[in-house]
Structure formats: C-alpha cells, structure tokens
C-alpha cells in the first residue's frame, strides 16, 4: 500500500536526479535557484559538479526519506511524539540563545544523509560511516555540537524512533508548544527553512 502511494513521488525525484546529472541542466537549475534566493538565513541547496545524483545509494536514501515522511506520527496541531533520545556527555544545558527568552532549542541528531558507506558526497564536511552502535552516533554528534554552540544536542535512539515519529530525514524543523506541534517544517533540504521558523517566532512574540 505504502509502496504504491510513494511510487509517483519517488519516480519524480528519480527523474529529477537523472536530469540533474546532465551538467548543463544542473547548472541552469541551480543558477535559477540562486537568483530566487533572497534570504541568506536559509542554508543554500548545493551540489557540486562532480557528484553524480542518480545512483543506487541516492535513490535508496530518497525512498527512505519519503517513507519516513509518509509514516511519521508528527502532524501539525497534534500532540508531539515524546520519543527517546540520548544525551551527550558533559554538556551544560539551557545556554542562552537568540530566542532563549521564549523558546528552548534542542537538536536531535538522527542519521547521516551522506554516510561514507552510503550515498557518498564529496562535498560533505565530514566522512562518517553509517552508525552501527550508539557509540558511533554519540561520537558523530560531538562534531555536530561544535556547529551549534549554545544549543542542547541529543541523539536519536538506535531504534531511530525520533526520526520515524517526526519524519526527520534528511533534516526538519519543528516548534512545539505545550506538547503540541505548532510549526512543522517541510522535508529538508528543500523544505528546511529557518526563515519560516524565525517568522513564526517573531509573530508569536
Ligand atoms: C537506525 O538507523 C541506522 C542508520 O544510522 C541504521 O543503520 C539502523 O539499522 C536503524 N535502526 C533500525 C532499528 O532501523
């Protein structure tokens, strides 16, 4: 059942990837996207010329992402799934951030979008293999912690319950209030819009 629901969007993505492997098309698409980007807050979508997009591993990753998104428990306006996460060692909690007066921030590190033994990307700043145990995941998350100083970082359990409940793969933003989901961002990377989150918080103020 899930298979047939997901098939059309998966095939669309596959065709997109196939087309983007023609450099002339890739250049044109990304040129167009760059022109439309007016807000520097959102991380830009970037693919270098040297990485092939249409591969078995990339298609597996896209399928995985669509499936998680389709089966997620998290929906706007509904109760926020309270999934299990694991704390990193020796981390001070509750450090002040931009919106610390109205919101606590937490980063839940799930899995690698581009593991060195999966959908490899030479653009990735780190070469990290798929996590085989919680220790692998915790040590990879230590690197992430350096990227987000002042923000609590926790990791998904090895059952990947947060990733599944929130359809988080590749990356996704949420705002929770009193146990409810009040903002649900789109699937990253295309739907990962920090500006949307910022606007929501500004309106809330
Ligand atoms: C959780 O995700 C990892 C990838 O980081 C994968 O290797 C593992 O098999 C997944 N666990 C389950 C229970 O699906």
From TrEMBL:
Top-rank taxon: Eukaryota
InterPro entries: Iodothyronine_deiodinase
Entry keyword set: Membrane, Oxidoreductase, Selenocysteine, Thyroid hormones biosynthesis, Transmembrane, Transmembrane helix
Transmembrane segments: 6-25
Gene3D superfamilies: Glutaredoxin (3.40.30.10)
Pfam families in alphabetical order: T4_deiodinase
One biological process term in Gene Ontology: thyroid hormone metabolic process
Molecular function as annotated in GO: thyroxine 5'-deiodinase activity
Family: Belongs to the iodothyronine deiodinase family.
Protein purpose: Responsible for the deiodination of T4 (3,5,3',5'-tetraiodothyronine).
PANTHER family noted in UniProt: IODOTHYRONINE DEIODINASE
The protein's name in its UniProt record: Iodothyronine deiodinase
């Amino acid at each position: 059942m899930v298979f047939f629901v997901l098939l059309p969007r998966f095939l669309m993505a596959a065709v997109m990837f196939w087309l983007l492997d023609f450099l002339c098309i890739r250049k044109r698409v990304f040129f167009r996207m760059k022109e439309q980007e007016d807000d520097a807050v959102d991380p830009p979508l970037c693919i270098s010329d040297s990485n092939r997009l249409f591969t078995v591993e990339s298609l597996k990753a896209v399928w995985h992402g669509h499936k998680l998104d389709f089966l997620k428990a998290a929906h706007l306006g509904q109760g926020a799934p309270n999934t299990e996460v694991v704390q990193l060692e020796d981390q001070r909690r509750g450090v002040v951030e931009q919106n610390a007066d109205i919101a606590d921030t937490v980063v839940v590190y799930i899995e690698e979008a581009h593991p060195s033994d999966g959908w490899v990307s030479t653009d990735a700043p780190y070469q990290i293999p798929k996590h085989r145990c919680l220790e692998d995941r915790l040590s990879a998350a230590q690197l992430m912690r350096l990227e987000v100083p002042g923000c609590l970082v926790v990791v998904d359990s090895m059952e990947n319950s947060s990733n599944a409940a929130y359809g988080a793969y590749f990356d996704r933003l949420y705002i929770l209030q009193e146990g409810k989901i009040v903002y649900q961002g789109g699937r990253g990377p295309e739907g990962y819009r920090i500006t949307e989150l910022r606007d929501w918080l500004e309106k809330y103020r």
